[in-house]
Amino acid sequence: GENVEQHPSTLSVQEGDSAVIKCTYSDSASNYFPWYKQELGKRPQLIIDIRSNVGEKKDQRIAVTLNKTAKHFSLHITETQPEDSAVYFCAASRTYGGATNKLIFGTGTLLAVQP
Amino acid sequence: NAGVTQTPKFQVLKTGQSMTLQCAQDMNHEYMSWYRQDPGMGLRLIHYSVGAGITDQGEVPNGYNVSRSTTEDFPLRLLSAAPSQTSVYFCASSYSVSGGRTEAFFGQGTRLTVV
User: What is the pLDDT of residues A43-52, one digit of tens each?
Assistant: First the structure.
């Protein structure tokens, strides 16, 4: 089955710096790679996703890149702000006709943005 | 539109007791799943369902049962609670949109302690 590894487990940056979180996956048939943000005591929420037919996707200060050959994908956050502090999860799955099947998560990265 | 609703929010069980965690969604989503979240372990898939009457095992199914008699409800049963099942449990649902985003919507979580 799919296995997703995520690094680093903790990341501390100064406000305004960039943060990068990396994930690798094992199943070459996976074609959908979302990123979720979980603030303390709250539920995970989708922040950005990418499909295997796209190499990069941006949404304001966040971007995700995908290297299918190497089976790894990364989350990039630029100009970090204190409100970016949270746990970030990567995930991978196969989708059939749009339906997500067995979304498998990485172990999470605790991002702390120091003012 | 309430989204995904989990009950209860908190529960304390004694070892050997059984209970059911409830999950209901009002978005007519086909796909529902249960995850457990433990420190350093991320979100691990317990069971999932791709539609009413269809369920399958995830990464960590032992000690849990599920059923999906309706599109809206996906209860998780703990047969004989063990301290190792102390965790935060999240239910999630998602929909199929051909070529589109397949965001997983999470409930608010159930914090379970087994003593």
Answer: 999 999 998 8
